[in-house]
Structure formats: C-alpha cells, structure tokens
Design goal:
It is built from 16 helices and two strands. It is mainly α and 391 residues long. The relative contact order is 0.15. The chain starts with a helix and ends with a helix. Strands 1-2 form a two-stranded antiparallel ribbon.
Length: 391
C-alpha cells in the first residue's frame, strides 16, 4: 500500500511537468480557441494584423460558419475532403503492406534481420527528407522515364502530384446527409452488439441518439440551421494560392494528385505497421497454429482463421496512430507539393498559409478544427482502453 506521504512526494515531483503542460499545451489551446472567435487579421484595411491586434473584435462562431459555407473558403473544404481520402488510403495502405511484410518475415525466411532493417529504414528519415526524395522521383526523368530506359518504350506521362483529375465526385452540401447515414449505421451496429450482450441501458441510449439524428435529418435541421446550402460571397480579397470560386467550387472528390503523396507516406510508415504486426504474430502460441494445421488448415487458412483474429488489438492501435498522423499531416505534403498546389491542400497547409498572410483568426479556427478531428479519433480509443483496464 502506498502511504499518503508517498503520494504527496509523487505529486510534488510531477508538479513542474503539470505546470508546464497546463501553460504550453492547454493554455495555448485555449488561446487558439479564443483567437478563433475573433476577426483578428480579417480586416485587410488595417494593415498588419499584429499592429491591429487590439482592434480585433468578438465574432463568435462566424469563422467556423464561414469555413463551412462561405464561397471564398472553398479551399478549406477541399482540404477537408483531401484529408478524408488521404486518411482512408494511407491507413489502409499501411495496414495492408505492413501485414504482408510481417507475414513474410513471420515465415522465418533467411536474412530476416536484414530484411526487417530494410523495411524499417524509411522510418529513420524525416518526413521532409522523404518528401524531397519522392518529389525527385516524380520528376519527368524519374519514375516516368523507367519504361523508356528499361524497355525502350514511350515514357509514362502521369502527373503524380500535379494532376487536376478528380474521381468519386460529390456535392459538399450533401455531406450532412452522408454523415447522418454513417452515424445511423454505426449506431445500428452498436445497438445490435448491445442487444447480444444484453446491455439494455447502453442500447437505450444508442436508440435515443439514433432517434434524435433521424428527427433532425427529417426536419432538415442541418441544411437549414447548421449547414446552409446557400453560399454567401463576401468582399474579402482572394488569396494568391487558390483560384476564384467557380460554379462547381463545392463539387468535391478524390484528387488524383494525392496518389503520389499517399505512395510516399505508405512507403515511410509501412515498416512501422510491419513491426507492430510482426510483434503480434510472434505472440500467437505455436500450439494454436499446429492445432489448425492438424485440422486441415492451409498456411493461408492459419493466418486467416488463427493469426488474424489475434491481431485485432494491434490493428486497432495501428489505425489510431496512423489516423492521428494523417489528420495533422503537413511536412510531407509541404515538402512534395508546396503550399500553392490546390490539388493537394490539407488543413495544416491552410493554417500555414493563413499565418503567412497574417490571418490569425482563420488560422486559429482551422487549427481548432484539426484538434477536434484528432480528438474524435484519440478520445474514443483512450476511453475504450481505460474501460477495458477497469473491467
């Protein structure tokens, strides 16, 4: 048993860290949120935003509303869509490649240590170095010239990070409807699980939330109150890194230019997921594998029916970590395509450009949105982990 004296000593020892954390983390988060509720730097007639700091006024949630509905903020909405697709393909690519590499190494191949080192080596590079290397590879004399150099064929002409093609198009104004359907789908899965486990209280709360979502969608609450579809054009100056909004400004989709960035990101982080999966595979008892082989399972069946179910906690942890990395991505994309490439915009670059133009209120609002996105990934994971430990 720990005495009260030991607890007091421990608290005094960690007190400086708590003090610094409160100031330089939570204090700055609060200051950023406070700045996002002002118009600091939005009045371009005031000259420097620093000089006009005391002239900034409280505008409430107008900055957030503008990000979602203002015609001139269509670049931010494009960055949000880019982040969504980048996260999906980046996380999925890392999990797939990492699992395949881990499965190969788990077969006790020769020179396993050498191959493991080679696969992990990209993690030793910074994202800026990785971006610079892959930007060179995507030049016309790089990957596109391999068919000509190796086989004498016509060089490939794919624009890896500059393509203007867009696939899977959709209207940004339909996003509330999509989010409602996704929320109802997730809630239906939770209700089914709670019903099987006979957790009536949790099932009741899930049904209540589903009913509220359905009611709000039925009365068009999102499109009439929170997410108006009529975009209002104001008179603020256009930024040089984005074209003026056209009639299809809010038609979004997967930008093909993200393909090159996704490949570079997967190349760097696949070794990390490989290490996690390999550690999980080595933790599966050999008795389970032998029992499956005795029952007639092939090697593929052993991995599918025995090993893979044991790796669910590892896969979940990898998804959370990779999702957190992708949501706040900046340096890799900035090193590969810069801040002026509209096709590969992400919120981190929007924040950088806004600060560069002294638009501190807009930068703070985008930063808060990024924080909320990261919290939606991290907090449920931490909550479930703490709950499992209590149980």
């Amino acid at each position: 048993m720990r005495s009260t004296r030991d607890r007091r000593i421990a608290f005094v020892m960690i007190l400086p860290s708590l003090f610094l954390l409160a100031i330089f983390v939570y204090g700055f988060i609060f200051a950023t949120f406070q700045n996002s509720l002002t118009d600091w730097g939005e009045d371009r007639r005031a000259g420097s935003a620093m000089a006009a700091a005391r002239q900034s006024g409280f505008v409430g949630i107008d900055n957030y509303r503008n990000l979602m509905t203002d015609a001139l903020e269509f670049d931010f909405r494009t960055s949000m869509v880019n982040t969504f697709f980048y996260t999906i393909f980046f996380v999925g690519g890392c999990l797939f490649v990492g699992f395949v590499l881990a499965a190969l190494l788990d077969m006790r191949i020769r020179f396993e240590g050498l191959f493991r080192t080679i696969f992990l080596f990209p993690m030793a590079l910074s994202l800026v170095v990785t971006g610079t290397i892959w930007r060179w590879l995507y030049q016309p004399v790089g990957l596109n010239s391999l068919p000509e150099r190796l086989f004498g064929l016509e060089p490939y002409s794919f624009n890896w990070i500059n393509s203007r093609k867009r696939v899977l198009p959709f209207d940004w104004n339909d996003v509330p409807l999509y989010l409602t359907y996704i929320g109802l789908f997730i809630l239906s899965i939770l209700v089914f699980n709670y019903l099987i486990k006979r957790r009536w209280g949790a099932m009741g709360w899930a049904l209540v939330i589903a009913g509220v979502l359905g009611f709000l969608q039925g009365v068009d609450f999102w499109t009439t109150t929170v997410w108006p579809q009529t975009l209002e054009l104001d008179l603020r100056a256009f930024t040089p890194d984005a074209p003026p909004p056209g009639p299809e400004a809010d038609m979004k989709g997967f930008q093909v230019a993200l393909t090159g960035i996704i490949i570079a990101a997967v190349w760097q982080m696949a070794g990390y997921t490989m290490a996690m999966f390999l550690a999980g595979m080595r933790g599966v008892p050999d008795e389970l594998r032998e029992a499956a082989r005795v029952d007639g399972c092939t090697e593929l069946g052993v991995y599918w029916r025995v090993v893979l179910p044991q790796l669910r906690p590892v896969a979940l942890s990898a998804m959370i970590i990779l999702g957190h990395i992708s949501l706040k991505s900046f340096d890799l994309i900035f090193a590969m395509s810069g801040k002026d490439n509209f096709q590969t915009l992400v919120p981190g670059i929007i924040v950088y450009s806004a600060f560069d133009n002294d638009r501190f209120a807009r930068a703070s609002a985008v930063a808060v949105v990024m924080l909320v996105l990261v919290c939606t990934v991290i907090i449920p994971y931490l909550w479930t982990q703490l709950r499992e430990r209590r149980d």
